[in-house]
Write a sequence for this structure.
C-alpha cells in the first residue's frame, strides 16, 4: 500500500536440512552441522553428512563412533586354523 511502511523483515528462506534416522543407530544429517550441547558449548562438523549419536555410548559424543553396534566375541580359535 502506498504511504505505509512495514517494519517486519522479509522471511528468510534457508534450505532445509535432510535428516534420516536408523532405529538401531545414529541420526544422519546433511552438513555442515552445529549442535548445542547440554553445557551450552557448540560442536561443529563441516562434513557433507554427519552421524549424530542417539545412544550416548559414543566416545566422540555428539558424533557417532558406532558404539551402538552389538559386538560379539568369537569363541577360541579352532585348531584347524593352523595348516599342517
Amino acid at each position: 500500500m502506498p504511504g505505509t511502511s512495514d517494519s517486519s523483515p522479509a522471511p528468510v528462506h534457508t534450505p532445509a536440512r535432510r535428516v534420516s534416522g536408523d532405529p538401531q543407530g545414529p541420526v544422519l544429517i546433511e552438513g555442515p552441522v552445529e549442535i548445542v550441547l547440554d553445557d551450552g558449548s557448540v560442536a561443529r562438523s563441516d562434513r557433507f553428512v554427519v552421524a549424530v549419536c542417539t545412544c550416548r555410548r559414543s566416545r566422540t559424543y555428539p558424533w557417532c563412533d558406532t558404539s551402538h553396534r552389538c559386538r560379539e566375541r568369537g569363541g577360541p580359535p579352532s585348531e584347524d586354523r593352523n595348516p599342517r
About this structure: The mean pLDDT is 80. Strands lie at 19-21, 27-30, 33-36, 42-45, 49-52. The radius of gyration is 24 Å. The chain is about 0% helix and 25% strand.
